[in-house]
Amino acid sequence: MATDFLTANEKTLFTNDFKDIIDDASIGISITYRPFSSKGSFAPSTGKVVETYSTDRTINSFRASVSDKEIENSGGKYQAGDWRYMIRVADVAIPKKDDRVIDGSITRYVVSWTTDPLRIYHSLIVRNI
């Protein structure tokens, strides 16, 4: 593994540093994370498929807009208006497409994500609903 050169203590220090950053009120923000469960049944009265979600969790995150350069280099994967949220793996073990990130009054859905090599945080790309 690419991180074999780190001791367990060093990884713990990195993990704690990231937690301290997103818990810092001047840097991090509180969001509600709503894990997607499944596409439910079709509701003829509304003409929509009812989606189901697991229990909401309030977690801390770091938020940044996706840069124009990233959008340009993404081959159409990212769009203007997309956002990046960095969250701890300890808070959400495995993100899924269609999970929801609720930031104040704005709800966004997960488009894609990556996990850092140390498995400390996920970098989510989210889009407005």
**Count of beta strands:** 8
Order of helices and strands: HEEEEHEEEE
Q: Please give the alpha-carbon distance between the first and last residues.
A: 37 Å
Estimate percent helicity: 10-25%
Rg over CA atoms, rounded to whole Å, is 16 Å
Mean pLDDT: 93
What about the largest sheet? 6 strands, antiparallel, barrel
Number of helices, counting only DSSP H or I runs of 4 residues or more: 2
Morphology:
globular
Please state the structural category.
alpha+beta
Q: Which sequence of strands runs across the widest sheet?
A: 1-4-5-8-7-6
Task: Give the amount of beta strand, in percent.
Answer: 35-45%
As residue ranges, the low-confidence spans are none
SSE topology sketch:
Elements: H1 8-23, E1 29-34, E2 36-43, E3 48-53, E4 57-65, H2 68-73, E5 83-88, E6 100-103, E7 106-115, E8 121-128
Antiparallel strand pairs: 1-4, 1-6, 2-3, 4-5, 5-8, 6-7, 7-8
Describe this structure in words.
- The protein is of the alpha+beta class.
- The protein is built from 2 helices and 8 strands, in the order H-E-E-E-E-H-E-E-E-E.
- The strands form 2 sheets. Strands 1-4-5-8-7-6 form a 6-stranded antiparallel beta barrel. A two-stranded antiparallel sheet has the order 2-3.
- A hairpin with a 2-residue loop joins strand 6 and strand 7.
- The longest helix is centred in the first third of the chain and has 16 residues, at 8-23.
- The protein is globular and about 55 Å long.
- The model has no long low-confidence stretch (mean pLDDT 93).
